[in-house]
């Protein structure tokens, strides 16, 4: 097995994943050796310069959310960038927004463009970016997957301590409430403080505890079956999770106490030799008197140990699009729907729950964050489209990644709606699964949609239905049999569909998830992807997979 960074000692009780505390402090490119121009790196023709919104862009990627199976995203990005070079744009929602954030972080680091005193070649840049994606296999304890692990820990402890039985008997109700609050305290600051407040002040704690536990069990299975999912406080503190993701992004961007010479040596010795290799084989490559895996573990451990939480600054507080034209999405309740949501939330806290009934046409939108000029271009471009998903586009403006990653990954079943600074209420990044048409409107010329077989599953459809969509509106958004549905139009418009079967591996098998992303089928007829010495061997126009190939409507 390749060497992994040593444990941090900060594991939370009974969790299936621990949390690394990563460092962040000064901005990328802070050493005098790199010439930062605010979005690209002077002298390198392959950096993701701050392209104006109207400028054509080359390689882009649209990422469909996949929850804790996010390592399949990382495998796809390692292969795509290793074959075809640096991204010039990306879009994602839910876990896909985390991947977009990490893509921008990796490409913010001057070391992927600067090879000593000269600009890297395109091949060298591609190899360095791909290698950074591969190293994430060596960091399974970064906070990624901590959400599901925490939910599992809660369910296990509730069953072991018999809390549901205790709260059913008035004689032992307080004992059950105290045990549940103690359990939340044990899980630490990853627990949503609003949930603790709800239980402490509840007029009917037995109702709220039972409802939260049952909802957590359903959330683990991605079951959403009533509109309380939009108002019930979830277990997880998404702001804290966003902070963890930000620390990881800070490491890859080169913020703070970063061993620049050490990382430079790692990239120089390991990037090009590791092209087309997975992390296991990359980690075993010789690197002087060490191996690539040992070099990476040493520089990551040193970075973590030098972290000072009192003085650090995080990538999570950067605005979206600082280094790369990016878009992040979330479904939003708007207009008069916000007052309905507030009323339903108040009723739930009073232990007198009422259904949230929304007008999908008027009160639900597909919101996008991005740079203002990017959003203007996207809005104009989508006016040419006739599908329902494009008609529901709403510009949310430019926000920090903290705002975005506290909202888009906070899906129904794991979180209540999240109020946004603009007055909207985010209900998670399930919307617009392919993210293709927005990238097309952004003028991306070679977009790869990272997707899975099978079309739109029950979770997305169920959430859309609970938000008020009619059967006709569901079909207009997601039906594979309708060539004019938003999903079908996206499949047809994409220059390439990266079809990763991420539902097959166990959700905590990091290596297997990375592999199904790294070795996925690639449905494309674009010569950009099919020709040239670095073309991906798994790319073909003749692959037919339901949900990944336009026009295929059955298994």
Care to describe what's here?
- The structure is a single chain.
- With 555 residues, this protein is an alpha/beta fold.
- The protein contains 23 helices and 15 strands.
- The two termini are 38 Å apart.
- The longest helix has 16 residues, at 146-161.
- Helices cover 42% and strands 11% of the residues.
- Mean pLDDT is 87; it is low at 1-49.
- α10 packs antiparallel against α12.
SS summary, helix count: 23
Radius of gyration: 23 Å
Gap between N and C termini: 38 Å
Principal-axes shape call: globular
Oligomer: single chain
In total, how many beta strands?
15
Low-confidence stretches: 1-49
Strand-residue proportion: 5-15%
User: What summary fits the major beta sheet?
Assistant: 11 strands, mixed
**Share in helix:** 40-55%
- Class by SSE composition: alpha/beta
Mean pLDDT: 87
Summarize, please.
The protein is built from 23 helices and 15 strands.
Feature tags:
15 strands, eleven-stranded mixed beta sheet, alpha/beta, disordered N terminus, two-stranded antiparallel ribbon
SSE diagram, text form:
Elements (H helix, E strand, L loop, with lengths): L56 E7 L7 H14 L4 E5 L1 H14 L5 E2 L2 E2 L2 H14 L10 H16 L1 H6 L4 H15 L5 H9 L3 H16 L17 H16 L6 H11 L8 H5 L2 E2 L2 E2 H14 L20 E8 L2 H14 L10 H4 E6 L2 H11 L5 H4 L1 E5 L3 H5 L12 E2 L5 E2 L9 H6 L2 E8 L6 H9 L4 H8 L7 H8 L2 E4 L10 H9 L2 E4 L2 H4 L8 E2 L15
Parallel strand pairs: 1-2, 1-12, 2-7, 8-9, 12-13, 14-15
Antiparallel strand pairs: 3-4, 5-6, 7-8, 7-11, 10-11, 13-14
């Amino acid at each position: 097995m390749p060497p992994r960074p040593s444990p941090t000692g900060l594991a939370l009780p009974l969790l299936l994943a621990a949390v690394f505390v990563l460092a962040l402090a000064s901005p990328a490119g802070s050493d005098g050796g790199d010439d930062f121009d605010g979005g690209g790196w002077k002298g390198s023709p392959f950096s993701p310069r701050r392209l104006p919104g109207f400028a054509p862009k080359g390689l882009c990627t649209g990422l469909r959310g996949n929850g804790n199976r996010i390592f399949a995203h990382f495998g796809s990005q390692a292969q795509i960038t290793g074959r075809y070079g640096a991204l010039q744009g990306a879009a994602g929602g839910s876990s896909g927004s985390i991947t977009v954030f990490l893509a921008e972080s990796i490409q913010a680091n001057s070391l992927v463009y600067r090879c000593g005193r000269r600009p890297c070649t395109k091949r060298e840049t591609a190899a360095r970016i791909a290698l950074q994606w591969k190293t994430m296999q060596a960091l399974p304890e970064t906070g990624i997957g901590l959400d599901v692990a925490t939910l599992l820990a809660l369910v296990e402890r509730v069953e072991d301590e018999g809390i549901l039985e205790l709260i059913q008997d008035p004689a032992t109700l307080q004992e059950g409430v105290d045990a549940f609050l103690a359990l939340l305290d044990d899980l630490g600051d990853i627990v949503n403080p609003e949930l603790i407040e709800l239980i402490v002040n509840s007029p009917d704690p037995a109702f709220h505890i039972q409802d939260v536990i049952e909802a957590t069990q359903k959330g683990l299975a991605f079951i959403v079956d009533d509109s309380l999912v939009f108002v019930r406080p979830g277990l997880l503190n998404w702001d804290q999770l966003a902070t963890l993701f930000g620390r990881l992004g800070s490491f890859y961007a080169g913020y703070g106490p970063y061993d620049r010479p050490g990382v430079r040596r790692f990239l120089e010795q390991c990037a090009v030799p590791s092209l087309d290799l997975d992390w296991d084989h990359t980690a075993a490559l010789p690197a002087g008197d060490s191996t690539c895996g040992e070099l990476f573990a040493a520089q990551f451990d040193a970075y973590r140990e030098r972290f000072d939480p009192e003085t650090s600054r995080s990538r999570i507080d950067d605005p979206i699009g600082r280094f790369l034209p990016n878009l992040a999405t979330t479904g939003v309740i708007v207009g008069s729907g916000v007052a309905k949501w507030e009323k339903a939330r108040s009723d739930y806290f009073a232990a007198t729950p009422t259904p949230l009934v929304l007008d999908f046409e008027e009160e639900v939108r597909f919101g996008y964050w991005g740079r203002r000029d990017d959003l203007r271009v996207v809005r104009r471009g989508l006016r040419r489209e006739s599908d329902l998903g494009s008609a529901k586009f709403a510009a949310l403006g430019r926000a920090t990644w903290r705002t975005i990653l506290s909202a888009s990954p906070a899906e129904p079943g794991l979180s209540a709606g999240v109020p946004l600074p603009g007055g909207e209420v985010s209900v998670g990044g399930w919307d617009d699964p392919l993210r293709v048409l927005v990238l097309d409107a952004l003028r991306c010329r070679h977009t790869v949609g990272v997707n899975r077989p099978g079309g739109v599953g029950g979770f997305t459809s169920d959430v859309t239905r609970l938000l008020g969509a009619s059967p006709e509106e569901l079909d207009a958004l997601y039906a594979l049999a309708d060539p004019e549905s938003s999903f079908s139009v996206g499949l047809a418009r994409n220059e390439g569909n990266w079809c990763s079967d991420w539902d097959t591996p166990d959700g905590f098998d990091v290596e297997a998830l990375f592999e199904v992303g790294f070795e996925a089928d690639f449905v494309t007829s674009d010569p950009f992807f099919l020709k040239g010495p670095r073309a991906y061997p798994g790319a073909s126009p003749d692959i037919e997979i339901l949900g990944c190939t336009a026009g295929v409507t059955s298994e």
